[in-house]
Amino acid sequence: MAAMFMTKSVFFNLSKSLPQTCSSLSLCSSRKVSRVCFSAVSNYNYNEGRDPVDRTKERAEEMKEKAKEETKEGTNRAAETAKSAKETAEDYANDTKEKAKEGTQRAADAARDTKEKAKEYAQGVKGKTEEAAKTAAEKAEEGKKKAAGSAESLGEKAKQTVQGVLGAAKETTQKIKETVVGKDDKDDREKKNNKYN
């Protein structure tokens, strides 16, 4: 920066010493050099009482210190940026971890709900199966009773049929007997039997 200042002041002083017909930054065709310019530069260094080499060394030291400070500031900014990036990454990792936990919890809840629904469904199916089995057993019992009733009624009818057949056989036998023996004897015998009874 100091070198820029010196360069600017040299050009400024040089342009003052040149004739006004020339542009401020360009040199005119005349080769006349003004002593004011050189004397100003030399007076500048000697007014401070320093040797130009010492001044250059001091400027180099200043530039070195300034470079150190800027490097240190840059390092600090880089460290802060790295720290900020680390914090951001940690925050992102924590958010991701929380979201993963929430997702896991939701999956566990869904699995538990599904298990409960399956259990309820199984109990419902079991209840329906038991009801169906009970109904089938009741219907089988009714069928058995109906079959027993039908068998009983068939037995009664068979008994009545057998009694009817037996009665018909007796009548037929009686008729045959009457035809063969005669009707009168029968009446006589009945009368005799009735007397004794």
Automatic annotation (TrEMBL):
Annotated protein name in UniProt: Uncharacterized protein
Transmembrane segments: none
Organism: Acer negundo (Box elder)
Bias (Basic and acidic residues): 48-75, 83-120, 127-145, 172-197
UniProt region (Disordered), positions on chain: 48-197
